[in-house]
Amino acid sequence: MSQITHCPISYEELLNFYKESGADTALTDTPVNHFHKSHSAENEVKQISDISHNKQTLSSLEQKSTSSYESDKMRFKDSIEEMVKNIKTLDELKSALLSFDGCSLKLTAKNTCFSDGTAGSPLMLIGEAPGREEDIQGIPFVGRAGMLLNKILASIGLTRENVYIANTIPWRPPGNRTPTPREIALCRPFIERQIQLANPRVLVALGGTAVQFFTGTQSGIIRMRGKWLTYETADNIKIPVMPTFHPAYLLRTPSQKKLTWTDFLEVKSFLSNLT
């Protein structure tokens, strides 16, 4: 029977072995011999108590962090509102948006999609956020959804030149994901001022994100569409809002086109009664 011999190994070689094995972080300042640790009930209770205390501490820190984040967000939003309220024209607002770096979406977007159509038109359409084609061209609603929107407008005797088009978010979210509440909050002062300066008589909210912008709630578009809402600007002007489906949704769900057409007929009727 052969005898096992112990090969001498240096501390450096041992540390390299640990490192290559993935053990490269020290958990405590002093070594712990787990083979000689007491596993008494008293120690186990203490360990559980320590874990509970650590969780409570972490929860407290998270709450403080969230509170601090919300406070910072409100201060930042207030500063944006203060900036945009002094802007007098849509061109100035566009320039301010182009120079604004407070929203991370701008870093991944190719272009800023500010608007299309004719400012000052009685009807203003508000979408959600640019898609791929919109991001490439820097114009809202120019992809397949935009082509469908053109047909919807034509069905009530309008063209893009007869309306004013914008989005709640001017930059494309990566992968066309839904904008986060924080992103919407950061961009909100800009679209609010854009509506104020465009001064439409009627608004159409295209899609869930746009509807949530006007309602301030998480109400779904299926429940809200077809029901007139009222939006009040900072200068206390009340504008009727018609929520309806986003054209991109209609491309995926053609069966809902009839409902959207009904909504736009309501808009047409309202516009025809304006004095």
From TrEMBL:
One of its GO terms (molecular function) is metal ion binding. Pfam families: UDG (PF03167). Residues 114-265 form the Uracil-DNA glycosylase-like domain. The lineage of its organism: Bacteria, Pseudomonadati, Pseudomonadota, Alphaproteobacteria, Hyphomicrobiales. Keywords: 4Fe-4S, DNA damage, DNA repair, Hydrolase, Iron, Iron-sulfur, Metal-binding. Belongs to the uracil-DNA glycosylase (UDG) superfamily. Type 4 (UDGa) family. InterPro entries: UDG_Type-4/5, Ura-DNA_glyco_family4, Uracil-DNA_glycosylase-like, Uracil-DNA_glycosylase-like_sf. It catalyses: Hydrolyzes single-stranded DNA or mismatched double-stranded DNA and polynucleotides, releasing free uracil. This is Type-4 uracil-DNA glycosylase. It comes from the Bacteria. GO terms for biological process: DNA repair. Its EC number is 3.2.2.27. SUPFAM superfamilies: Uracil-DNA glycosylase-like. NCBIfam families: UDG_fam4 (TIGR00758). PANTHER family: TYPE-4 URACIL-DNA GLYCOSYLASE, TYPE-5 URACIL-DNA GLYCOSYLASE.
